[in-house]
Design a protein that fits this description.
By secondary structure, the protein is α+β, with helices and mostly antiparallel strands. Among the domains are: about 140 residues, Beta-Lactamase, CATH 3.30.450.20; about 90 residues, PAS domain (Beta-Lactamase, 2-Layer Sandwich), CATH 3.30.450.20; about 150 residues, Heat Shock Protein 90, CATH 3.30.565. It is about 55% helix and about 15% strand. It is built from 16 helices and 19 strands. Strands 1, 2, 3, 4, 5, 6 and 7 form a 7-stranded antiparallel beta sheet that branches. It has a 5-stranded antiparallel beta sheet with strand order 9-8-12-11-10, with helices on both faces. A 5-stranded mixed beta sheet has the order 14-16-17-19-18, covered by helices on one side. Strand 6 and strand 7 form a beta hairpin. It is elongated, with a radius of gyration of 42 Å. About 0% of the residues have low confidence. One of its GO terms (biological process) is signal transduction. Pfam families: HATPase_c, MCP-like_PDC_1. Its EC number is 2.7.13.3.
Length: about 750
């Protein structure tokens, strides 16, 4: 029996065996392919549904965001707010209604004037809610919002944004409208003005409308789509409306469904007559996932599986003889001839012919295609690496901002530690004769340091908020700058650079005049919403509206561009506040360090009299704020030999008395000049003057013109004793509005 015959019989047996196995494999493969196809189809359905829902939610958040930003930056009237609420949903049938709830007396401070007004509660609190009438969709009704003060789930739409200051997409819940409980979802954004929560604004979706628009279709024959809330409950069920508001899935798989919602990973579980697929998806900056459930019935898998198996069997057995024929031909051409060539090559080698060559066979096989695939993969990898570098750059910039926030936090902690140390120093200083004066200084310094600390803390929170807004707007900004024309991109770049170079704020009358001027200009240019846009331009620090900024005002993406620019402007202003506050505290601490250094010296030396006076004035100016105006007239540069601590004690008593006499508000004049062989120092205050009943005893111990409990009567006595110690003299003169203490000392030649 020839090799060809044996090979043909062997191939026939192998092909028959493999034909049967192939049919079984085809059946199994077809089953799993069909299952995978059903899963992919389910994912496609879920992706389509989630895209439509995200679009609805995104439109809602964008609309609400515009109203939120406008109300935060301006102080609209109640009528204006009500008009904005109606505009949010009136022209968009997807939304049921819009409402706002403001904290008591934080909207306009006039709640008591609106008691009994529709849209306000019994106390006049502004809580309007506009919605489409249940009976007539074209009619808009106004009601008072309810449930907002409830601490159960019905009040979550107000209480959670108030507590977290973050956007809130609520769980589905029942809300009464015109005596009917309506199953709905609320999309809420908090309103924060000057770092303070004042209320919320939101849009409502009626779930029955959402069901009719998206979930009424029945995919895969007997399948259905459902919407699942972050709490694991049915918001919309495409097959059984009775399940709305109920938990998803049987108890044994509910934990897996919750994990799927938390992790964002798809999940499926078998149910009677089919499989349910859970596809989580996120909506904007909201931290919790929603999900689309797609039910695929088993009939969808088996409808096409039977014909596939039958066709596979028929094709396999029909092609078996043909395969045998071509295998025989292939064996002859590519095996037999190849063996003959190999034998000839071996014979040639055996004969010593080493120049022979194996016959070339130019065949572009799988390896050739593999090289092409690898080249294609290389190009895609290069593209992915470039995108990763861009992402890492953005992350580094975000990390730098976070690092700056951490530095600010550490500086705040260091300043708080410094404040504690100052309070400890205060307790030590109370042991000597300057107990009352230093006590007042320390308390005032604490107040002055706490003010910039509070400003720094508020600025740090503002920076965190603006960073989040900038980060959320970066994807839009990158797309916008890539797609817009060059003129508009140049206008954006010029505006951005102007904002970065200007950290001064327009406030009060100057801001209002600038805004009205810009508004008039925009109206002449026929710009829509000229008032709102003029307010934003003025907030950005522009004294007018140049051409490049006008171009942005009339572009379609003005709202989100202005929101990004306002966030950048907020970063600049917050950084300037931190800079000014830090400088203020540095000056206070520096003055205290100078004062403390001088008071620790206990040996006589030559000192300039004006330097000791400056040490005291620096502390009192830092502690007293800006309400006392200090005028210095240092004509003399005279020096005297003394213990610096003594002069500091003397000036402390006199300056402290002056500040108390003026109640911390007035004018303090210091004059140092030469008079013959002496140097004279005068301290004049604009207080009410020295009471007449104590003038004769002024300078004696226990003689005080202050109220009982405010002075011990030793301040001027200490000053007089120090003056006498260094062979000096002192006198005074007083009348209402002008009191002068005058000290003379021998001048050091």
């Amino acid at each position: 029996m020839s090799l060809r015959t044996r090979f043909s019989l062997y191939c026939a047996a192998v092909l028959f065996t493999f034909s049967v196995l192939l049919t079984l494999l085809v059946a199994v493969s077809a089953y799993y392919d069909s299952k995978v196809s059903s899963q992919e189809a389910a994912f496609a359905k879920a992706e389509t549904a989630s895209f439509e829902i995200r679009k609805i939610f995104s439109d809602a958040i964008s609309k609400v965001g515009e109203a939120k930003t406008r109300w935060e930056l301006t102080h609209p009237s109640r009528a204006s707010v009500e008009k904005d609420l109606v505009d949010l949903f009136q022209n968009d049938k997807k939304f049921l209604g819009a409402g706002a709830v403001f904290e008591p007396n934080l909207f306009d401070g006039r709640d008591s004037s609106f008691i009994g007004r529709k849209g306000s509660n019994a106390n006049g609190r502004f809580v309007p809610y506009f919605h489409r009438s249940i009976k007539d969709q074209d009619k808009i009704s106004l009601e008072e919002s309810v449930y907002y003060d409830n601490t159960d789930e019905s009040g979550n739409y107000y209480q959670i944004p108030k507590a977290t200051l973050h956007d809130y997409v609520g769980e589905p819940y029942m809300y009464p409208l015109e005596g009917v409980n309506v199953f709905m979802i609320s999309l809420i954004r908090p309103i924060i003005r000057n770092g303070r929560f004042i209320g919320i604004v939101g849009l409502d979706l009626k779930l029955s409308d959402l069901e009719a628009e998206i979930f009424s279709k029945r995919p895969f024959g007997g399948g259905f789509l459902s919407l699942i809330s972050p709490g694991g409950k049915y918001a919309v069920h495409g097959s059984k409306g009775i399940l709305q508001g109920k938990n998803v899935g049987p108890p044994e798989v509910r934990e897996s469904i919750q994990k799927s919602l938390a992790s964002g990973q798809p999940f499926f579980y078998p149910v009677d007559s089919g499989n349910s697929y859970i596809f989580p998806f996120s909506m904007g900056s909201y931290s919790k996932n929603w999900a689309i459930e797609v039910f695929v019935p088993d009939s969808f898998l088996w409808n096409d599986l039977g014909p596939i198996i039958l066709r596979s069997l028929l094709i396999t057995f029909a092609l078996l003889p043909v395969c045998l024929y071509f295998i025989d031909r292939f064996f002859c051409k590519y095996v037999s001839e190849g063996l003959s060539s190999a034998a000839s090559f071996a014979d040639s080698l055996g004969a010593g012919n080493y120049t022979t060559q194996i016959p070339s066979r130019d065949i572009k096989d799988e390896i050739h295609h593999l090289f092409l695939s690898l080249e294609n993969m290389k190009e895609k990898l290069l593209l992915a690496i470039d995108q990763q570098i861009r992402s890492e750059k953005i992350l580094r910039e975000s990390a730098e901002i976070s690092s700056r926030n951490e530095i600010i936090r550490l500086q705040k902690e260091e300043l708080e530690i410094t404040l504690g140390e100052l309070k400890t120093a205060q307790e030590t200083l109370l042991r000597n004769e300057r107990l009352a004066a230093i006590g007042r200084i320390s308390g005032a310094v604490s107040h002055q340091i706490n003010n910039p600390l509070g400003a720094i803390g508020a600025s740090r929170e503002n920076i965190s908020y603006y960073v989040k807004r900038i980060t959320s707007l970066l994807p839009f900004l990158l797309t916008y700058l890539n797609e817009t024309d060059e003129d508009e991109r140049n206008a954006f770049n010029e505006t951005f650079q102007r904002i970065l170079g200007n950290n001064k704020e327009l406030i009060g009358k100057k801001f209002r005049e600038t805004r009205h001027s810009i508004e008039a200009f925009l109206k002449r240019q026929n710009v829509e919403n000229a008032g709102d846009k003029a307010a934003v331009v003025a907030e950005l620090g522009f004294p007018d509206c140049p051409d490049f900024l006008l171009k942005l005002c009339i572009c379609n993406e003005w709202n989100r561009i202005s929101e990004f620019l306002m966030a950048v402007r907020g970063l600049e202003i917050s950084e300037e506040v931190i800079h000014r506050s830090t400088d203020r505290m540095y000056k206070i601490v520096s003055a205290l360090e100078t004062y403390s250094g001088i008071t620790r010296e206990d040996s006589e030396r030559s000192v300039k009299i004006s330097d000791t006076m400056e040490a005291v004035l620096g502390v009192y100016e830092g502690a007293g704020g800006n309400r006392v105006i200090v005028e210095r007239n240092y004509i003399s540069e005279a020096r005297m030999k003394c213990v610096p601590e003594d002069l500091v004690r003397l000036w402390t008593q006199i300056v402290d008395n002056a500040y108390q006499a003026m109640s911390g508000e007035g004018k303090l004049s210091i004059r140092i000049y030469d008079s013959e062989s002496k140097v004279v120092c005068e301290v004049e205050d604009s207080g009410p003057g020295i009471p007449k009943d104590i003038r004769e005893k002024l300078g004696e111990v226990l003689s005080s013109g202050k109220m009982e409990g405010e002075g011990a009567g030793i301040g001027l006595a200490v000053a007089a004793s120090i003056s006498k110690k260094y062979e000096g003299s002192w006198n005074w003169e007083s009348e209402p509005g002008c009191t002068i203490f005058r000290f003379s000392f021998p001048r050091l030649e």
